[in-house]
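Sharing in case it's useful to others searching the archive later.

Someone asked me privately for the predicted structure of ABC transmembrane type-1 domain-containing protein, so I'm posting the question and my answer publicly. Question first, with the sequence:
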Amino acid sequence: MCWEKIEVEALVMILKVVVVVVVVEVVVVLIIIAAAEVTTAFVFLIVVVVQIVENKLHVVLVVLMLVVTVVG
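And my answer, the predicted structure tokens:
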């Protein structure tokens, strides 16, 4: 019983992290679409979707790097 509760809590935490990551990605994509050319934003969108499928943590790093690049 105790282990099942821990597993459920872990799943809830993972889901929360995934939701936050997806929201951040969407916001960044919208900012880039607003700030950059449509072609660039479209390419970035494809890259993000591919990265989401491949690896969640990698997406966070890519988004952070792109945010730093855009801001800097």
